[in-house]
Specification:
Layout lengths: L7 H22 L12 H19 L3 H18 L4 H18 L2 H8 L4
């Protein structure tokens, strides 16, 4: 049995998800107060940041569901940005398209299927 070879693009993307999730988690953590943690949107922001970290970590391990979580995470941001400025929507949509392209290139499909090149 040969080991799977992780494409560099997947490594970089997964590390980016981990970094963005960790930075976002730390940046928004101060917004949560014990007295209103469950009434405040801050707890849900933290959940979304943890999902980015989980997605990145498990993409590094080659789990197929993690790439779908990564796409869902970015698509969620596209939907959220639709309620804001048009340039934010455009930027998020371009990032989402690039991420989908990276995650479904032939080498990435092989990696997530567990097939050695």
């Amino acid at each position: 049995m040969t080991a799977k070879v992780r494409p560099l693009s997947i490594t970089l993307l997964a590390c980016l998800y981990i970094a963005l999730g960790a930075i976002g988690f730390v940046a928004h953590f101060g917004e949560i107060r014990a007295e209103n943690a469950f009434r405040y949107d801050g707890i849900w922001i933290e959940v979304v940041e943890v999902l980015a970290i989980v997605s990145g970590a498990f993409m590094l391990r080659g789990h197929n569901w993690a790439r779908w979580l990564a796409i869902a995470w970015m698509a969620f941001h596209v939907v959220l940005s639709a309620f804001g400025a048009l340039h934010e929507l455009a930027i998020h949509a371009v990032f989402c398209a690039v991420i989908v392209w990276l995650l479904f290139r032939p080498d990435a499909r092989q990696y997530f299927r567990g097939v050695s090149p």
